[in-house]
Amino acid sequence: MKNARLTVEKDFTVSKIDPRIYGSFVEHLGRAVYGGVYQPGHPTADEDGFRRDVMDLVRELQIPIIRYPGGNFVSNFYWEDSVGPVELRPKRLELAWRSTEPNRVGIAEFSKWCKKVGAEVMQAVNLGTRGIDAACNLLEYCNHPFGSKYSDLRISHGAKEPFGVKVWCLGNEMDGPWQTGHKSAAEYGRLADETAKAMKQIDPSIELVLCGSSNTQMPTFPEWENTALTAAYDSVDYISLHQYFGNRDGDTANFLALSDEMDRFIRTVVATCDFVKAKRRAKKDMMLSFDEWNVWFHSDAEDADTMRNRPWQEAPHLLEDRYTFEDALLVGLMLIALMRHSDRVKIACMAQLVNVIAPIMTEENGPAWRQTIFYPLLHASKYGRGTALMPVLASPKHDTKDFSDVTDVASVAVWNEAAQEVTVFAVNRSVEDDVALTVDLRSFPGARLVEHIRLANGDLKAANSAEKQNVAPETVSAAETDEAGNARVPLVKCSWNVLRFAV
After folding, report:
1. Domains in the chain, start-ordered, CATH in brackets?
2. Catalytic one among 101, 109, 120, 292?
3. pTM value surpassing 0.85
4. Does residue 194 have an active-site annotation?
5. Is 292 a catalytic residue?
């Protein structure tokens, strides 16, 4: 067994963690909405047609904010079609996913569902096929109290109280040629700036997210950030990052090192933001919204076949990745990266929430169930509240196909002062060796390990189903603590670990 050491110092802090980094995303795509959150006639459906079993799992995750309604969907979204009497709403061809959108669930329904699960709405506006006027009209509909065209329209639809949406995304992935209404960085930056200024005239309290690069491999990255931020820096509050990973080569060691690329992505965007800040002589720091992230690759071939050969279905089976144990490990590693950068990453959304590249899956006439990736998100959301600390890690290292000096252990510590608890999240991403991790907590006198939650499985390709949870966490008790305040905890190879210390 190899050895690693994590020294945790109470006064060495990164930042207070914004709970919104444990957010998620629901797009009108596949079965995310219809057959996912909404299914009238299902045995668990409530009076509004929402599945109670899904709501129970969303509440279990304690999701604080949910991005809606896209994603690529939003770039051809006519919000007016999604409000008012359901029987009068038109069906539309949905261009991004070559599906038919029935508009049975719209802005009011989703706002009601979010209240039921205890989450805020993070609303996206269409800057692909539409522009400033449509964005302002939607904001007026959602947030203005009364006495104007669109606020009174909302009231006539039965919603007297405003929805009070605080966070708004100015389009989606506008750097991507696949995006309906794709624009250059200069075109988008000017449009976003003008839209932002107009929206803040209507409601100065809102926060706005500028589109950043869709991933690190975009040929325009990071010049896109530089150009778009130069145009809109003073008008927006966040810039977005999106990143998906996949193990297409079947190389587990390399796959589990991809979180280091996510870390570099964040650091590069922060550096670009700070460059633009200096260039514009601005005072504020630009914060980050990592509002799409996950593993996504399992269903690529099936999705392409469906959209090419069977288009224009309502709620087709799309992006229904069935996640493995190794996928859950990378999700845990990505969550650690987000926590470590909590000084600048204030919002993050696992994409997505139900059925579509999601931690929660549903059977049409059966139950909702937890995928393998459900558990790291659950643990981070539940125990990762408080202040992220800046521990010093000494770990063995290894090389992979694309990465050098990859630490066997990746870790972060969180101090929850209200609960008087330190939580250490640690992944042993070595595919060969167990590692004994010594956690030095001398700056927290009397700290004692009260729980070690571990997600481990000898089969890296093990997956869950409605019938069986092959991958599920367990509580283990193999740690040793000495008088000096050091806890020695064995981390088996390829494992996600949550170490909870009471102070």
Report:
1. 2-10+388-502 (2.60.40.1180), 18-383 (3.20.20.80)
2. 292
3. yes
4. no
5. yes
